Amino acid sequence: MTLFHEIYSLYFRIVTHILDRVEITDAQLQEIIQKEGYKDSVLFLPQKLIPQKDGSDWMLLRRTDQGTLRSILGHKPQRTVTKLQKRWLKTKLSDPRMRLFLDDETYASLRQHLSDVPPLWKDGLYCYFDQFSDGDDYCMESYRKAFCIILNACKNRSVLNITFISNKGERKQICGIPLSIEYSRKNDKFRTYFRCIDNGKLRSTIIVNLGRILTAEPLDSHTHSTIQMQNVFAARQCRKPVTVLVTQERNALERFMMEFAAYKKRTEFDPETGICTVQLWYDLTDETELLIRLLSFGPVLEITAPSHFRALAAERIRKQYALLHGE
Amino acid sequence: MAGFSELIKNFEKTRDYVRDFFLYGFKVRSDFSRKSARTYDDERRRVESWLGDYLHYEDSARGRQAAITVDSGHITENPLYQAYYARSFTHNDIRLHFLLPDLLADGKARSLHEITDTLSTEYGCVFDEQTVRGKLKEYVEEGILASEKHGNTMFYLYCGEDIRDLIAEYDGLADALRFFSEDDECGVIGNSMLHSADIRNNFFYHKHNFIVHTLEDETLLGLAEAVNEGKRVIILAKRAKNRSAAAENETGTEHEVVPLRILVSVQTGRRYLAAYIPAQNRFHTFRLDSLRLLRMGSKEPNYNHIAMRLSLCMHKCFGVSFGSRKTNGTVQPVSLTIHADPKSEAYIIQRLEREKRIGQLQQIEPDLWKITIDAYDPHEVMQWAKSFIGRIVSVTGGTEQIRAMFYADIDRMHKMYGGAENDVVS
Known about the structure:
Chain A is an alpha+beta fold and 327 residues long. Chain A has 3 domains: 66 residues, no CATH class; 95 residues, Roll (SH3 type barrels); 84 residues, 2-Layer Sandwich (Alpha-Beta Plaits), CATH 3.30.70. In chain A, a hairpin with a 4-residue loop joins β11 and β12. In chain A, α1 packs antiparallel against α2. Chain B is an alpha+beta fold and 426 residues long. In chain B, a hairpin with a 6-residue loop joins β8 and β9. The C terminus of chain B is likely disordered. Chains A and B meet through α1, α5, α6, β4 and α7 of A and α1, α2, α3, α6 and α7 of B. β4 of chain A pairs parallel with β8 of chain B.
């Protein structure tokens, strides 16, 4: 049982889609490959699917008298859930977050359905030792209810009225649509990107922690607005990236590249100095988080730009120096 | 480029290239000297074919750099999963994949002989019995077919369940798959289920998302199996500087270990196998990305006892280090005193509370907070401690070396950022 198996491969999936059509033209076949395949798949796949005189094709399609291609199968292809997939699903049933998606009855029923399937690993195999300890309580009934309402509204683009406790501890009420749901393994929390609606007009997008939501009430209205999350992310992104010089001292380069792997970045290495210049693009609301993470590397990296960001680092270091040296 | 294929047979080789393109992004062709330039060209072209726009090129003074550029928090599907979906196969593999379930779709059990005959008579496809037997056996193992013995003859039948039926039957399962398919615990398996059902994730995002972890999923499955069965494994642990595809050679040390847990740092992205090394009578952690699972070993008779001992040890680990101790030893408590006004800077106190792990937090003055961490390796505390730069009043305990390094680091940073100045470096 392996994950790296051709039964999960893209080529097999494409062929499934083609055989699903029962009868297909050459042009349609090419179109499917073009749309679903890798960049170069169109160079390799058609000749394996379209019958060849030398018999070098896979013989899964036959040419009809009308010139179309017809599947040799008697049925549409099966899309079988493999043992590996079932075992993975069984493993996930032990994850408390699974209860956010399945109601009690469905959960029990699926668990029963998979009762003979061993999980891929036992609870406790993974230990997230530096995960924040104030994560969301996924078993809390009110949390599960709010999650379900947010998720449904997110899918249907329906309008909600929510009340929540803000970062400053104030109770707030807003109307709008949840655009997406974000999970952070580090924080162990869910948040929603929530587009506010005021007087019937779409306003700014705010981020609300699901754990702070007190009530979520669906309203009888929908929006047909097509808000792209990529536009929302772009609006929140810094204009100028942070530039950092990373040395190789204390294995800093390797540590840095892994720790900041989640960021969009641009890198250039100077073999003569052994210094790598890295530009990182970040969400403006995460500026402080980025700053403290960079400072935690100590003197093995230096923030060089933009000026306001470097000034923030310098200010903290000056304070620290004064605390230690009494200046 | 005759003979080029988008598909791969060896995942290990490709994973190292994908990792280098993604993590570093500054390496040029000549950096990949371990294999031939032709190998580099093929691997790069393949990755470009799989990932399309995610692969960027940039011309630097050293040559052309290839980099996989992804803002991991802003994607709904991990592009690196593609490496798993590019497994090569033979003509027989793909033909039998579609023909066998089709032939057995009526649920009737058939013998190998009947199946091979029907493939020829009904489908016009002639296979030798050995090929068909091999595939039937493989598909029984994968859970697609079932086998039952009648007398001396093995019969095969289709026992599969269609993913679309499963999703239709369990309300909410599709959303669960959407979410968990991007999870870093073998999420690629969930992603394969989504694709199989023609479903896409279009509204779940993962912040602090280390998508590169997926490249270790195959290794993880092997380790999990060993843990389930309480077995030892034989691993090759590469040294840190040889972790990448660009490294000169693949030297490493072979160990026979008892695998116990997977330790994940959600902040640094590093993942480790926590294991017991019987030959050295000690616990040790190995970076997952520099580990190769060579083979399964024998059953470990004391597995449960060893696992319990690790659990006890973990209470004294701030990170993943057991220090220089063997099975017994002493902890070296380190204390940090942090300045925070409980009224205006309550968020700092919240940070200390939620991030302290095994530490003990106490308020020692109205605006001073002392956190004491009894850890085998106090050195591990210091990177986290430096995330409080600007507030650290003192560092006590631990070792003389870590205290001296902390003070020296602050002095160096003070000079680096210009002391009282904070001019931008041009």
